[in-house]
Write a structure and sequence with these properties.
The protein has about 260 residues and is α/β, with parallel strands linked by helices. The strands form two sheets. The protein has a six-stranded mixed sheet, sandwiched between helices. The protein has a two-stranded antiparallel sheet with strand order 2-3. Helix 2 (about 35-45) packs parallel to helix 8 (about 220-255) and helix 3 (about 50-65) packs across helix 8 (about 220-255). The protein contains eight helices and eight strands, in the order αβααββββααααβββα.
């Protein structure tokens, strides 16, 4: 005989998220990128920044040059596009909640302007600090406590009325990465206008990178050009930053803290 298992709060949140994500006309593109130099530079570091953050920062740099990647579709009171001034990366992060694994979403504001070390510190906090510390985590667990007739109204309002509200809640782009676990989604559902995900690296340093996008917001050709730009950004700007990380760490260590004794 089987057993009935009530939905946990994280599972109820994902159920609601999928309900609205499946309404979007999502298209998926992929590009095989050759990043062997970047892989070697990262592997040479004693403390390696997350690949997800490297990709997030590179994508944010691309999106600052290509404003169509910072737009979202707003449906009420008239259909329009909203363009945000900067990037907010919304990254799926697995956490334990009351004895069960659940997916939470960490927000990284302006990753294009921040160092990888700073982003890594924030990612570690999202992974290991108490869930109650983060407003976006608390909000997700609070909204699923509302009764069903109220939750759809809250979701509809968040997605359709204000571009600023939608972006603050769901980011300018999403990231759903499981490559470190050995597999990845070929297709996915997402509430974000664009979502970045990728396969595990191959032995020669190549990798298949995927972007799932809302076709109401952007067409295929701009996405294809953005993915070419993403590979070039990874192999220039991010490669340079990864190679400079040891020097940045030495500089921080050598500089005395204000007020230290």
């Amino acid at each position: 005989m089987g057993r009935s298992i009530p939905l946990s709060r994280p599972r109820r949140f994902i159920c609601d998220l999928m309900r609205y994500s499946k309404q979007l006309p999502l298209i998926g593109f992929h590009r095989k990128m050759h990043l062997s130099e970047l892989v070697a530079a990262r592997d040479s570091l004693p403390s390696r920044p997350s690949w997800a953050l490297i990709f997030a920062k590179a994508y944010s740099r691309v999106a600052m040059r290509r404003p169509e990647l910072r737009r979202s579709f707003i449906g009420f009171p008239w259909r329009r596009l909203y363009e945000h001034s900067h990037n907010i990366a919304c990254m799926a992060i697995e956490r334990q909640y009351r004895g069960e694994a659940g997916v939470f979403f960490g927000h990284f504001e302006k990753p294009e302007d921040r160092t990888l070390a700073d982003l890594q510190t924030q990612l570690e906090a999202y992974k290991y600090d108490p869930i109650e510390k983060f407003g976006n985590y608390r909000r997700a667990m609070r909204i699923v406590r509302y009764p069903w007739p109220l939750r759809p109204m809250l979701w509809w309002h968040a997605l359709n009325v204000s571009g600023a509200i939608r972006t603050s809640l769901f980011g300018t782009f999403g990231m759903s990465v499981t490559a470190a676990e050995g597999a990845t989604a070929v297709q996915l559902l997402s509430i974000a206008p664009t979502t970045l995900h990728y396969d595990p690296f191959e032995s020669d340093g190549s990798i298949v990178v995927r972007v799932t996008f809302d076709h109401r917001v952007i067409d295929g050709a701009p996405i294809a050009r953005a993915m070419v730009d993403l590979e070039e950004t990874l192999m220039t700007e991010l490669l340079f930053e990864v190679r400079e990380l040891p020097q940045q760490v030495k500089s921080v260590v050598a500089k005395p803290l204000v007020g230290s004794r």
